[in-house]
Specification:
about 280 residues, disordered N terminus, mainly alpha, about 0% strand, flat
Length: about 280
């Protein structure tokens, strides 16, 4: 009798332990791979395989990065980059979700705008750089327009897919019970579209960071990208690499932030529940 009761719990616990062990193994392997890359970058210039004027040892990059942490101007630049990224991403999310729900909910409007969306969406944001420079110069508004433009399409397309995925039977049932438009959006469309919205957020978060750094580097908008350009033009190779490492760390942080948002927003979804377990 006792063996009959304990068997199911062991069956459930074993896959959970297996998944946790797998995640721990992946983390260890990831750290090991990063350590190997750092070691290779440290050895290549020291043994003369690569000229240290173009690729300094990893220890020199990290020492320069440590010095930067004590510079107020570094934190100001980091703050400028994060502020531009956050504002642009927020505008793109609000606009993309609102436009996507409205356009996706009205078939005629979806048909009218389909060709326009397919025409505008593939246009690279960098192609707009001459236009925004002509209007705003090197002001933060230039980077903001590029970030919003690039991120908006990522969100809009996902929301359109989400709205199109709504079960027509459920939608017709809501109409037959005379739900208001707001109630239909809140109880029928939004729960179905939410996973797509979160996917759009993850895509848009990465794209927004890329465009923010690109605008700072090319246009000269204040931020980490501008400091990278100044360091490169002044021949400060170690500082250039140190700032590139910072940009990479910011990218990892943005991705982790997006993952946290996804888990919180979709904690009821089966895929997230399996991942957390």
């Amino acid at each position: 009798m006792g063996a009959t009761l304990t068997a199911p719990s062991q069956t459930v616990t074993r896959p959970i332990r297996t998944r946790r062990a797998g995640r721990l193994r992946d983390t260890v392997l990831g750290i090991l791979g990063l350590a190997v890359v750092v070691l290779v970058i440290e050895l290549l210039p020291r043994v003369g395989v690569v000229d240290s004027r173009f690729l300094p040892p990893a220890s020199e990059m990290l020492a320069t990065l440590w010095d930067q942490l004590g510079e107020p101007s570094f934190w100001t630049a980091l703050g400028d980059t994060l502020r531009g990224w956050a504002i642009g991403l927020a505008i793109a999310m609000v606009a993309g979700v609102a436009v996507g729900i409205v356009v996706g909910s009205i078939p005629l409007l979806r048909a009218i705008t389909a060709s326009t969306v397919e025409f505008l969406r593939p246009i690279p944001s960098v192609a707009l750089i001459p236009l925004v420079v002509l209007i705003y110069g090197s002001q933060p508004q230039s980077a903001l327009i590029l970030v919003v433009y690039a991120s908006f399409w990522q969100v809009l397309v996902q929301v359109l897919y989400g709205v199109a995925d709504v079960d027509p039977v459920v939608r017709d049932t809501a109409h037959s019970y005379r739900f208001s438009r707001r109630a239909i959006v809140r109880t029928v469309i939004w729960p179905t579209a939410l996973p797509y919205v979160v996917t759009g957020f993850r895509l848009a978060a990465a794209v927004a960071l890329i465009l923010e750094i690109t605008a700072e580097l090319i246009i000269g908008v204040p931020g980490l990208g501008q400091r990278i350009g100044v360091a490169q033009s002044s021949g400060a190779v170690s500082l250039t690499y140190a700032l590139v490492i910072v940009v990479g760390l910011v990218g990892i942080t943005v991705n982790l932030f997006a993952r946290v948002v996804e888990r919180r927003a979709l904690r009821w979804h089966s895929s997230v529940r399996r991942e957390i377990a």
